[in-house]
Amino acid sequence: MAAHKLLLLPGDGIGVEVLAEVRRILAFIEQKGILSFEIEEDLVGGAAYDAHGVAITDAAMQKAKAADAILFGAVGGPQWDGVPYDVRPEAGLLRLRKELELFANLRPAICYPALADASALKRELVDGLDIVIVRELTGGVYFGEPKEITDLPNGQKRAVDTQVYETYEIERIAKVAFELARVRSNRVTSAEKRNVMKSGLLWNQVVTATHKAGYEDVKLDHMLADALGMQLVRAPKQFDVIVTDNLFGDILSDVASMLTGSLGMLPSASLGAEDPATGKRKALYEPVHGSAPDIAGKGLANPIAMIASLAMALKYSLGKPELANVLDRAISEVLADGLRTGDIWTEGMTKVGTSEMGGAVLKKFETLLSA
Ligand code: NAD
């Protein structure tokens, strides 16, 4: 069995604690002979700055480029607030995204039945919710030039950001969305603002053409991004895969995340282009949450977002979608048993810490696999 190359980047704060739980699951998978791994580990974020004066070293970047999947914890913390801008902890993550060209950000919003009451919406609207937002991550208004604030002769200032997309950028993200839909419920909703933005018009045209050119088996709808935001809180279960640009994706994925309760539950994946020779994509998997300095080092962090990120890696990088489903089911059943970390705890439930929660998921995973 060829070994899968993994790079573990725990980072700072609770990143270190939640990644420790993933390490236990990886060891179990390997010990069971299901997969074999070549695991590398390195520093990123504040930890890398303290050791090397940069947010990620060139050597760690080399390991990242060679990896089949990167599992990333979180970076940042108040102790690095004063460090120079280009070596601040977040610069490590941005360098990874940029140099690996991770243009597709996948954020699932899954509502586990046991947590439906923690949602801001009514139980019947979110119970069983399972959608994915595919956000374009490396283009659009966050990167377009010019991007500046200039002084005007009348003493006022003028700020410009540029929303810019080229055909290839829209085509490749649309393909990711269609391919993802094929292994889910086969529906894609594309969101833009073609009524007021030229980039929205091109987005709509390219998504439509990409659909026609090879994905007509997938059902495609177009929706204006503002209308989609409204539908997301009115009737979220109508969606399967939503594909949208960097700006709208940033906002809509945060809205979607609140449908499901806590930050500690939300995984994500960032994918690059498919290598035509190997069929593999560069990929980084990380929880949506940050390093949570307020609870770091106390063993209180919820490891589920990190474990669910591993499930995404099993599905999209390691060729084990069935195993990923078993891991997701283990999470769901542990929650149904009433185990809760502090962030998702409610009256009557059993409060546990990081390693107890990780251990319970691992135990359930083992039981489900041997059943
Ligand atoms: P955060 O996500 O770290 O924390 C927000 C709140 O949610 C905190 O109260 C925290 O205790 C709680 N929380 C988050 N994850 C949790 C978990 N797994 N279990 C239980 N509770 C959890 O966001 P923040 O406080 O705005 O940022 C803290 C630091 O993290 C900052 O330095 C920020 O820049 C950084 N950050 C990093 C990333 C990343 O690495 N991708 C993302 C966001 C923020």
Topology:
Blueprint: E1 4-11, H1 14-31, E2 37-41, H2 46-52, H3 58-66, E3 69-74, H4 90-99, E4 104-110, H5 123-126, E5 130-136, E6 144-151, E7 157-162, H6 167-182, E8 187-192, H7 198-212, E9 219-224, H8 225-234, E10 241-244, H9 246-258, E11 267-274, E12 281-287, H10 304-316, H11 321-336, E13 339-340, E14 350-351, H12 354-370
Parallel strand pairs: 1-2, 1-3, 3-12, 5-10, 8-9, 8-10, 13-14
Antiparallel strand pairs: 4-5, 4-11, 6-7, 11-12
Please tell me about this protein's structure.
It is a single chain. This protein is α/β, with parallel strands linked by helices. It has 2 domains: 1-103 and 272-371, Isopropylmalate Dehydrogenase; 111-261, Isopropylmalate Dehydrogenase (3-Layer(aba) Sandwich). It has 12 helices and 14 strands. Helix 1 (14-31) packs parallel to helix 12, helix 6 (167-182) packs across helix 7 (198-212) and helix 11 (321-336) packs across helix 12 (354-370). The model has no long low-confidence stretch (mean pLDDT 95). It binds nicotinamide-adenine-dinucleotide.
Number of β-strand runs: 14
Mean pLDDT across all amino acids: 95
The structural domain count equals 2
Q: What fraction of the residues are assigned to beta strands by DSSP?
A: 15-25%
The strand order across the widest sheet is 2-1-3-12-11-4-5-10-8-9
Identify the CATH class of the largest domain: Alpha Beta
Low-confidence stretches: none
Spell out the helices and strands N to C.
EHEHHEHEHEEEHEHEHEHEEHHEEH
User: Going by CATH, what is the homologous superfamily of the largest domain?
Assistant: Isopropylmalate Dehydrogenase
